[in-house]
Amino acid sequence: EKVTDFARSLLWLIPAVVSTIVSVQSINDTEPNHGRLYDTLVSELCRGSVKCLQAHSGLNGSLVTFNLLVVSGLTSIAQGSGMACMPLVRLAYQNARTLEELTIGLAEEPDWRTLVYGGTGFPIVFNSLKELTLTVADVPYTSTWAEIEGTESFPVLSTLVVNGGYPFDDDFLFRGNGKTLQNLRIPFKAIARNILGRFNVLKRSGVTRMSSIHIGRVSDVDKAFIAGLAEIPVKQQMGHILETATTLNLQNDTVGLAMHFTIKIVPSISVIRHLAFAGLVFDTCHIIDVISALPSLANLTCDVRGSCSSAGTIPASERPSNLDSKYYPLSRNFRVLRVPYSAQSSAKKIAIVAMQIAILCPNFLYVDIAPELRNVFSHEVAWAGFNRTFEPYTKALQSLIYTDLDD
Prior knowledge:
Layout: H1 2-9, E1 20-24, H2 32-45, E2 50-55, H3 62-65, E3 76-79, H4 86-94, E4 101-106, H5 109-117, E5 131-136, E6 159-164, E7 183-188, H6 195-204, E8 212-218, H7 220-227, H8 234-242, E9 247-251, H9 255-269, E10 274-282, H10 284-293, E11 299-304, E12 336-339, H11 347-360, E13 366-369, H12 374-380, H13 386-390, E14 399-402
Parallel strand pairs: 1-2, 2-3, 3-4, 4-5, 5-6, 6-7, 7-8, 8-9, 9-10, 10-11, 11-12, 12-13, 13-14
Helix pairs in contact: 1-2, 4-5, 6-8, 8-9, 9-10
């Protein structure tokens, strides 16, 4: 009774509510009080005030019991952990006209059919959906989805994030839906198509405004394709997709492949201003080579450990890291180096790299260092001779800033 009384005590707020977020946590179907609470609240909130729904694990079939299927006019549905239950998928297509953001997990093939067709036999069009985040089960899919080729289920989609597997034989999500896509985050796993196949699908879908691309872990299957990009007309394969991108994220690749892709491929087809490497370790030479190859680069995120230890694109004897003024200025656009936390990071080495970059990039402003390195950094920068060595070259450097960083 206390649970029901609590729900009833909130009803007086309903007339003043403009937007409500309903967060459904794990529900015990054997507790009738839980049912009464959600029945009471949801039945009232569903009269027009609910705009956002956050659903978490433990739902199963409970959404039907608690009348959420009658909700209309939702602008956002966000599923938490776990795969979606069918009622949540149905709720998505019932709000297809008003949804602007959808985060959902799809475990089985029927889930896709329900999302796209809504059980009607006709493709559902999400007229307002701008952001779609999918968690896909890493299992084989057998359908070719040929029947929905040419449809535009997501005519205004600007951001697509795919987590987990992506093993479709046919990339039906992109068919006719890529014209407005600007931000793409997608994994390239062994079970998925190769990287060129992916970009060809995007090319066919009419992508023209891409500004941000996040390439997930590159599988062994895809490495050969990346390594072979220099041997093919890259602009024909990927230029159409990358040429407008200003932000590029590469995750869990090898340093060699990342450098090859960044230095040999990207400069010919894109003007990258923001670049991030996750799961990679770079030395000074790598960083200098990247800055040199990408003259428009303003922001670089990577793990830094030490000075040059490998051969890069510039001969070691001519490297600007040797304080040689031959390559000055290396870049007038580069301004920020971000360094995420790593247990093996050396604050002194990071500081040295920062000073070397400052020597070569007159507009370099600051280093953004993970907060875990703060105490270590304060001790190590007292390294003897540090200030005397680099002071003449750091007139533009304004500050060293510590911030919390996402990998």
